[in-house]
Design a protein that fits this description.
The chain is mostly beta strands. The protein is built from no helices and 10 strands.
Length: 125
């Protein structure tokens, strides 16, 4: 059974930074692409950015380009999201997701239905 556990969220002022962490168990982490999603109050969950098995990155939310960085440590089965220059519109619950293959995709169905509880990011203005 695939399990994910997100952490690192919190309350930060606009312009600040946070680093989110996702620890994954139950699969061969290094074999799969990984992604960060977020869901703001009253909005649908959206994919933010994804890292391929080979380390390549695909952005799905243009507003985070130049501010967010995704990375992975395969030895630790851990995914990271470094968020800089945070804006109030980044406020959301953040979730990590495991892909079913080695590449990234915009399709929700491509990701395993093994969502964690998420980690809340709140950015004050």
């Amino acid at each position: 059974e695939v399990q994910v556990a997100e952490s690192g969220g919190g309350l930060v002022q606009a312009g600040g930074s946070l680093r989110l962490t996702c620890i994954v168990s139950g699969l061969s982490f290094s074999d799969y692409a990984m992604s960060w999603f977020r869901q703001a109050p009253g909005a649908e969950r959206e994919q933010v950015l994804c890292i391929w098995r080979n380390g390549g990155v695909t952005f799905y939310t243009d507003s985070v380009k130049g501010r967010f960085t995704i990375s992975r440590d395969n030895a630790k089965n851990t995914l990271y999201l470094q968020m800089n220059s945070l804006k109030p519109e980044d406020t959301a619950m953040y979730y990590c997701a495991t892909a079913r293959g080695s590449y990234c995709s915009a399709s929700w169905a491509y990701f395993r239905d093994s969502w964690g509880q998420g980690t809340q990011v709140t950015v004050s203005s």
